[in-house]
């Protein structure tokens, strides 16, 4: 079974973002992190547009797990999305 694609849009200084990273690590999930504040201007603009596609408020963390989007540090919702994606 293929692993779901997981992408975390975060800010390097955000404690909630760090908490989501730790939680994904604890779950053994492989994921891509985009620390939006560390990108150069053009990359940052593109990343913000990607986030806006999933989360019109452009708030962080925004976690995309397969077809699910979890906005904020919501461990239960992240866990459920991981479980659902693995069972798909």
Strand portion, in percent? 15-25%
The average pLDDT score comes to: 95
Sheet of most strands = 4 strands, mixed
Oligomer designation: single chain
Any idea what the radius of gyration is?
12 Å
CATH architecture: 3-Layer(aba) Sandwich
Spell out the CATH superfamily: Glutaredoxin
**Largest sheet, spatial ordering of strands:** 2-1-3-4
Low-pLDDT segments, ≥5 res? none
What is the H/E order?
EHEHEEH
Shape: globular
Quick structural gist:
The protein has about 90 residues and is of the alpha+beta class. It contains three helices and four strands. It has one domain: Glutaredoxin (3-Layer(aba) Sandwich), CATH 3.40.30.
Describe this structure in words.
The protein has 3 helices and 4 strands; from the N terminus they run βαβαββα. It is an alpha+beta fold and 88 residues long. It has a single domain, classed as Glutaredoxin, CATH 3.40.30.10. Strands 2-1-3-4 form a 4-stranded mixed sheet, with helices on both faces. The longest helix has 14 residues, at 41-54. 23% of the residues are buried.
Q: Can you lay out the helices and strands and say which pair or pack?
A:
Elements: E1 6-10, H1 15-26, E2 32-35, H2 41-54, E3 62-65, E4 68-71, H3 75-87
Parallel strand pairs: 1-2
Antiparallel strand pairs: 1-3, 3-4
Which keywords apply here?
88 residues, alpha+beta, Glutaredoxin, four-stranded mixed beta sheet, 4 strands, 44% helix, globular
